[in-house]
Amino acid sequence: MSVVPAGVLPGSVRAAEQGEREAAELGPRARLWPSLVAVYRAQLSRARVARIPLLFVATFQSVGILIMMRGVVDGGSEAEAVVAGSAVLVVAFVALNLLAQYFGQLRASGGLDHYATLPVPPAAVVLGAAGAYASFTVPGTVVTAVFGCVLFGLPLTHLWVLIAVIPLAGAALSGLGAALGLLAPRPELATVMGQLGMSAALLLGVLPPDRMPDAVRFARDLLPSTYGVEAMARTFAAEPDWAYVLGDLAVCAGVGVVSLAVATWAYRRAAVR
Q1: ∠98-99-105 over CA atoms, to 5°?
Q2: With contact defined as beta carbons under 8 Å apart, do 219 and 204 qualify?
Q3: In terms of Cα–Cα distance, which of 4, 199, 1, 5 is closest to 85?
Q4: How many other CB atoms are there within 10 angstroms of residue 2's CB atom?
Q5: Residues 6 or more apart in contact with residue 191 via CB below 8 angstroms
Q6: DSSP code at position 211
Q7: CA-to-CA distance for 48 and 58, rounded, in angstroms?
Q8: How far apart, in Å, are the Cα atoms of 220 and each of 106, 190, 209?
Q9: pLDDT per residue as tens digits for the range 77-105
């Protein structure tokens, strides 16, 4: 039986404590922006092959709605609402419907446990996935908008407003879709809620608001994508009122911040269960 000198143990403890401090200095906590970029790239590469067919379906759906509405609407403000609503519908299909399904399945399969073990802030997971899904909407939204303008004889001059409409409407709808998927107790319910949300964006966003009852108009004002539709529709005028356009985009941005914050809270809540 060996005897350990009295001075060795305290020194070992001090050395261990110093080693822990050095390890802590060598392994800082992951910051939000690098983590967000890493999650975004991972989600983008993972979903690229699987989501391209669905994006084609979303674009085909919106183009089909434009062709169908061409037989009902001739032009004017109604045509502007139809084209803008059909373009934003592509964003709703991907950012709201598919993202709700993704987070619902991720929660049911235990995929949240994988992210919970990584030194990644919850906001980075939500924002990275939402940004990746919203990125898939860009080609389909542009194609739908150009096709609709040509079909209804609307000007293409201010279609550059999609640079603001797509990310802001995408943020609002992505946050809502992620929250629905994370809060749903079962993935089937997440799928149903995502599809109901997309149906609401279809009915309330594409149909001209002038023909809607007051109660339906009120429901339309509660839908985040409505303000993206309004912002885009206003730019078809000969002299757009840019103050109203910026106001609608500001509402989209505000709703996006709130919905993504709710989605982050829902992610924290689901990850600790």
Answers
A1: 90
A2: yes
A3: 199
A4: 3
A5: 100, 101, 104
A6: G
A7: 15
A8: 30, 22, 8
A9: 889 999 999 999 999 888 888 888 888 88
Which residue bears the tokens 């979303």?
Answer: 58
Helix (H) or strand (E) holding 118: none
Helix (H) or strand (E) holding 4: none
Buried b / exposed e over 178-211, threshold 16 CB at 10 Å, is bbbbbbbeebeebbbbbeebbebbbebbbbbbee
Residue 253 has pLDDT above 90, yes or no: yes
CB atoms within 10 A of CB 114: 10
Average model confidence (pLDDT) for the chain? 82
DSSP run (H or E) holding 210: none
Sign of the dihedral through C-alpha 187, 44, 53, 73: positive
Looking at residue 273, its pLDDT comes to: 63
As a whole number of angstroms, the distance between CA 120 and CA 36 comes to 8
Q: What percentage of the chain reaches a pLDDT higher than 90?
A: 30
- Give the distance, in angstroms, between the CA of residue 198 and the centroid of all CA atoms in the same chain: 13
3-class SS string, 130-178: HHHHHHCHHHHHHHHHHHHHHHHCCCCCCHHHHHHHHHHHHHHHHHHHH
Q: Which residues contact 204 (CB under 8 A, 6 or more apart)?
A: 212, 216, 219, 220, 223, 226
Query: d(Cα 252, Cα 207) in Å, to the nearest integer?
Result: 20
